[in-house]
Inverse folding.
């Protein structure tokens, strides 16, 4: 079976600074895959290159068996995207934005139930600019799910949500996963990663330090918990472990 996402040797540099270096990722259908790392590790740049938003300097990307640069229109129909920083036009209501988004796709999801799930029910007439930061974050996830995508990219999906809202989002993603939705997400919440992700890739300065399941990544470190293992591989706690790179655990 063809994998929804295959990335080989992805490279992106800005001048003399390498943002993503020889990244290899394969994501299976119905899998929730976590792309992890501290701020500046290369997560968002990698996603933007995968989507064709930014031109990569090297490597190849197959997204749902297509090339995002040349098959942009078809890819657009089948991929959902939510970035941590989203910008919307002024003076548009929540219902208008959801309705316009749904009109762009052949078989959109019903957005009203999504508003309820994400705690925005009753805010249909609110201007998007009047929403709080957390409410706009939830709206951006809803917009990514409206296309009824085969694969969705979620960048820090539960930032700004309270505990109950986060758990509700987790349950929704688990339900969508059972229906075959493939998810690539970034998150700084390791409890979220442990609850949702089948496998993860931890980046450090653009390099893949390790790829594998939560248990495999933890076992490959000297740590007892996944959160500590993440800190060890990502180098968030200190600047050590420079000699660790490209460990793959299946």
């Amino acid at each position: 079976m063809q994998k929804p996402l295959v990335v080989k040797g992805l490279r992106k540099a800005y001048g003399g600074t390498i943002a993503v270096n020889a990244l290899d990722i394969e994501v299976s259908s119905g899998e929730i895959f976590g792309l992890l790392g501290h701020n500046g590790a290369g997560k968002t740049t990698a996603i933007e290159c995968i989507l064709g938003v930014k031109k990569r300097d090297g490597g190849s990307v197959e997204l749902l068996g297509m090339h995002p640069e040349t098959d942009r229109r078809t890819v657009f129909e089948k991929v959902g995207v939510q970035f941590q920083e989203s910008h919307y036009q002024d003076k548009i209501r929540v219902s208008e934005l959801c309705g316009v988004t749904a009109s762009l796709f052949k078989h959109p999801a019903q957005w009203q139930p999504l508003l309820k799930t994400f705690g925005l029910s009753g805010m249909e007439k609110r201007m998007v600019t009047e929403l709080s930061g957390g409410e706009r974050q939830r709206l951006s996830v809803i917009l990514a799910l409206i296309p009824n995508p085969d694969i969705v990219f979620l960048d820090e999906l539960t930032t700004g949500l309270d505990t109950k809202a986060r758990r509700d989002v987790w349950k929704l993603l688990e339900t969508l996963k059972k229906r075959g939705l493939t998810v690539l997400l970034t998150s700084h919440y390791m409890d979220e990663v442990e609850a949702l992700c089948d496998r993860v890739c931890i980046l450090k300065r653009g390099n893949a330090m390790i790829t594998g399941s939560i248990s495999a990544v933890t076992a490959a470190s000297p740590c007892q918990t996944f959160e500590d293992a993440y800190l060890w591989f990502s180098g968030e706690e200190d600047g050590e472990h420079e000699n660790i790179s490209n460990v793959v655990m299946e």
